[in-house]
Amino acid sequence: MSSYNVALNFEDGVTRFVTCKTGEKVLDAAFRARINLPMDCSDGVCGTCKCRAESGSYDLGDDYIDDALTEDEKESGLVLTCQMVPESDCVIAVPASSTACKTEQSRFTATVSKVEPRNDAAVVLELDVDATAPVFLPGQYVNIDVPGSGQYRSYSFSSAPGQSTISFLIKRIPGGVMSTWLESAQPGNKVELTGPLGSFYLRAVERPLLFLAGGTGLAPFLSMLEVLARANSQQRAHLIYGVTRELDLVQVDAIEAYAAKLPNFTCSTVVADTDSTHPRKGWVTQHMPAEALNDGDVDVYLCGPPPMVDAVRKYFDDNGVKPNGFHYEKFTPNAAVRTA
């Protein structure tokens, strides 16, 4: 019997996955997982369970009335979860908070397997998952409890979903809570994680992609690139990786390896330091080729510190650039809370 994973993305950034059996409706699978999705009639009459399917294939049948879901709404990707039967893995945006649906964030335990410094800029942290490999969407993040501190920090997965070892690219901050702990962390140490979280993730790939990464904002793109490579994607994609100093350029070997795996993937690096000898100096917006923007028929993904995100958004506004899709995430390295 076939089954499909359905990601339920709630308004507060929490993501929960449910498994739909063959012929099972999403609403029923959610209830079986004790997730109370919005509903009233459950018969395709009221429209209360209306959500948006962001990816995947499914069947809505014809047992609902037009007042509950119009043809225009259906064409735009809206669905009734009480009627939706997945025919592949799907992603659904739920217009309600996880607390309103009486569910909560998932927590799991992992074991440190590797702590690998990259120059003085970052640390690669690899964790072995003690139980079932966590399910997440490429680009999402988790909260990692910092042992002994009573605090947590948020980091994007740099590994692809479905692996028993997960990895993160963590900025080194002198005196930082996580950075201080990583200085003495050893293989075998246990950590607690909460997630996955976030609305920044790779959507269905239907047009060229432009990835814009700032510093350790590279992490989610490594996850996305691995997913694209596994799918043998033929879609055109370009990554621009901007940093402050040359020493901040890490994982470049991993990025370049994807150029060999993905026939239509290209990448470039940019260093802001004007004293650098790097061939491309300045800001990401100064090295954005017109062909990568594809006259707006492009999906742009942007992850970096707030000044970079704001600068790219201003550049798009000032130059009349209107990408078909524009997904971004800001992060502050020392903060426990991220915004997207």
TrEMBL record:
This is Benzoate/toluate 1,2-dioxygenase reductase subunit. It comes from Paraburkholderia sartisoli. The keyword Oxidoreductase applies. Residues 105-203 form the FAD-binding FR-type domain. The lineage of its organism: Bacteria, Pseudomonadati, Pseudomonadota, Betaproteobacteria, Burkholderiales. It holds the Pfam family NAD_binding_1. PANTHER family: NADH OXIDOREDUCTASE HCR, PROTEIN RFBI. CDD domains: BenDO_FAD_NAD, fer2. One of its GO terms (molecular function) is 2 iron, 2 sulfur cluster binding.
